[in-house]
Every structure is written in C-alpha cells, then in structure tokens.
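EI: anyone free to look at a 89-residue chain?
SC: sure, send it
EI:
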Amino acid sequence: MESRDLLEALLELARELGLEVRIAGQGDLSPQTSGVCRLRGSIWVVLSTADPIEHQIDALAEGLRADCTKSLEGRFLPPALRERIFAED
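SC: here you go
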C-alpha cells in the first residue's frame, strides 16, 4: 500500500472510531510536527502538513494504538493497517 493510501485509510478508520484528528496547515500558529496529545481526557492527533507523510502515518497509528485498541480487537483490518497500528516500536 502506498504511503498516501495508507494515510487516507488510517484517517478513515480514525473517523469511524471517533478519534479526534486535526490537520494543521502551514502558518504562524501551525505545529511544526505531528503528534498525539491528551486534552481533557481524550486522545487527539494533530497532523502537520509540514511533516513528511511517513511521520503523519506514525502519529496517526500511535493515536489509534493509544485510544482505540479495544475497538480494533475483533475488527478486520487490511494487513498494512494492522502492521502500522500494532507495530512494535
């Protein structure tokens, strides 16, 4: 699976599971890097368009791993998605 397709598939999965994802464009107040944070008890993923796609994929997979593991247990995922989400660091 190509990187762009993998990112889109992870974004769709995050939407389906209710994970908060924000995509920040370039600008003075935009983050310089993608990451995962906890805000008022909820996991949020912020994707920076300034980051390479692979870094955005890693941040999104980390957010899914941190917040949605139980929701993913019995669900079919294409091997490429499962590998990225549950990859050992």
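EI: The radius of gyration is 13 Å.
SC: 👍
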